[in-house]
From TrEMBL:
<protein>
    <recommendedName>
        <fullName>citrate synthase (unknown stereospecificity)</fullName>
        <ecNumber>2.3.3.16</ecNumber>
    </recommendedName>
</protein>
<dbReference type="Pfam" id="PF00285">
    <property type="entry name" value="Citrate_synt"/>
</dbReference>
<comment type="similarity">
    <text>Belongs to the citrate synthase family.</text>
</comment>
<dbReference type="InterPro" id="IPR016142">
    <property type="entry name" value="Citrate_synth-like_lrg_a-sub"/>
</dbReference>
<keyword id="KW-0808">Transferase</keyword>
<dbReference type="InterPro" id="IPR036969">
    <property type="entry name" value="Citrate_synthase_sf"/>
</dbReference>
<dbReference type="InterPro" id="IPR019810">
    <property type="entry name" value="Citrate_synthase_AS"/>
</dbReference>
<comment type="pathway">
    <text>Carbohydrate metabolism; tricarboxylic acid cycle; isocitrate from oxaloacetate: step 1/2.</text>
</comment>
<dbReference type="InterPro" id="IPR016143">
    <property type="entry name" value="Citrate_synth-like_sm_a-sub"/>
</dbReference>
<dbReference type="InterPro" id="IPR002020">
    <property type="entry name" value="Citrate_synthase"/>
</dbReference>
């Protein structure tokens, strides 16, 4: 058994009594109350989910296992000769809370390689779809099609699996899926946009490096890929993709069903698709000006035009965050170093100067600052991935790391099937009158 699996087993067993004690002895302790606004308004801020993998502070942004983004990147083993860490080591960290050694990291590199063969029928399914299907539809379909491989589903069907053992096949499925996602993502990209010229994996490369290689994008795109996947991995449990994955897994659906569902949520324009929308918006803006950069005044006008037509400014605002997203900042730092003169990067910076003021004057959003999606597309364009429809697939490959770590722990700690309670509008009105 791998060091990762052994460590995870120890961690889960050591953790379980904490959850059980809280549930049994302190189950009645109140940690929140819910008002009508929250019942109508998307359960905003209601504290009713538990995860130890990441925590999102409204002012500070995300911490993975207690570490900020810069701390996480600094602590993890780096790919030799590269700036960015191994994504494999990051997954070890997400799952266990411990920074792996280089040897432990290399173990996962080898493990994922050994699991990376995607069954031919998955490609056949993709090839049977209309070529102009959205890449997110293809991505989600491929994951769902692969459910046939689920070790969890097979074990469950034997009728002999104990609740405490359920994390193990969940972990195995998660590792199988993660090993294959870059292959699937790159396949969709090359099939759809590059004349169906598929590039096979290079067994010498790590997970992020291999993705860049299979995409056919020259380095340093490998480091871009590693950085992207880590940045997009986890954002605590309440966001649509994480929550959906967790919700579906709570019915003891396996990791394939659960992740495919989460990816469908990520495909919404208010969530992951915002990165595609941002680039679309930027391209539109540039087109109106014959591909020259707008002045600040022009940019202000374009932002107002978007708002006045009833649309949101994609990439700005957040349900929880109340400051500039540190995932935006990390990408901005990267761009300052690697693409300082890129005109689209300059435009992104200009939007950052103008949009918060416009959104504040508009007066609706609680957070006028940019989120992760405001920046990601521009780096992709710089390195040659110009097909913005594809961007949410990149988000999805990264997001899989977080949500699969989460559902493995869900099974480890025996979390229950999710079942909040609904009420009727009549009831709300009655309670409203009663004050
Ligand atoms: N542009 C225009 N209006 C905005 C806005 C924006 N960027 N952000 C929020 N608002 C509006 C809301 O639409 C809402 O209007 P309403 O009262 O007429 O319904 C009002 O401001 C209050 O919303 P608020 O409480 O601030 O935000 P929510 O929690 O409801 O929604 C999202 C959060 C992220 C959905 C919202 O800010 C948004 O639509 N942003 C643009 C899309 C985007 O970038 N999504 C990606 C977010 C994230 F990082 C990710 O998941 O990838």
């Amino acid at each position: 058994e791998s060091t990762l699996k052994q460590t995870l087993k120890q961690k889960i067993e050591a953790f379980r009594p904490r959850t059980q004690k809280l549930n049994k002895e302190f189950g009645e302790v109140v940690i929140d109350k819910v008002n009508i606004g929250q019942a109508i308004g998307g359960a905003r801020d209601v504290r009713c989910l538990v995860t130890d993998i990441s925590y999102l502070d409204p002012q500070e942004g995300i911490r993975f296992r207690g570490k900020t983004i810069p701390e996480t990147f600094a602590a993890l083993p780096k790919v030799p000769g590269k700036e960015q860490p191994f994504v494999e080591g990051f997954f070890y960290f997400l799952l266990t809370g411990e920074i792996p050694t280089m040897d432990q990291t290399q173990e996962i590199v080898a493990d994922w390689k050994a699991r990376s063969a995607v069954p031919q029928y998955v490609f056949d399914v993709l090839r049977a779809m209309p070529r102009d299907s959205h890449p997110m539809t293809m991505f989600s379909t491929a994951i769902l099609a692969m459910q046939r491989e689920s070790k969890f589903a097979k074990k469950y069907a034997t009728g002999t699996m104990k609740k405490n053992d359920m994390w193990e096949p969940m972990y195995e499925d998660s590792m199988d899926i993660l090993a294959r996602l870059p292959v699937i993502g790159a396949y969709i990209y090359r099939m759809k946009y590059k004349g169906d010229t598929i590039i096979p994996a290079d067994p010498k490369l790590d997970w992020g490096g291999n993705f860049a290689h299979m995409m056919g994008i020259p380095n340093p795109y490998d480091d871009v890929a590693r950085m992207y996947f880590i940045l997009h991995s986890d954002h605590e449990s309440g966001n649509v993709s994480a929550h959906t994955t967790h919700l579906v897994a709570s019915a003891l659906s396996d990791a394939y069903y659960s992740l495919s569902a989460g990816i469908n949520g990520l495909a919404g324009p208010l969530h992951g698709l915002a990165n595609q929308e941002v680039l679309g918006w930027i391209k539109q803006t540039m087109k109106k000006l014959n591909n020259t950069l707008p002045s600040k005044e022009q940019l202000k006008q374009f932002l107002w035009d978007t708002l006045n037509s009833g649309q949101v400014i994609p990439g700005y605002g957040h349900a929880v965050l109340r400051k500039t997203d540190p995932r935006y900042v990390a990408q901005n730092e990267f761009s300052k170093k690697h693409l300082p003169n890129d005109p689209l990067f300059q435009l992104v910076n200009m939007i950052y100067e103008v949009a918060p003021g416009v959104l504040t004057e508009h007066g609706k959003t609680k957070n006028p600052w940019p989120n992760v999606d405001a920046h990601s597309g521009v780096i992709q364009v710089h390195y040659g991935v110009v097909e913005e429809d594809f961007y949410t697939v990149l988000f999805g490959i990264g997001r899989a790391l977080g949500v699969l770590a989460n559902i493995t722990w869900d099974r480890g700690l025996g979390y229950a099937i999710e079942r909040p309670k609904s009420v009727t509008t009549d009831m709300l009105e009655k309670w409203a009158h009663e004050g």
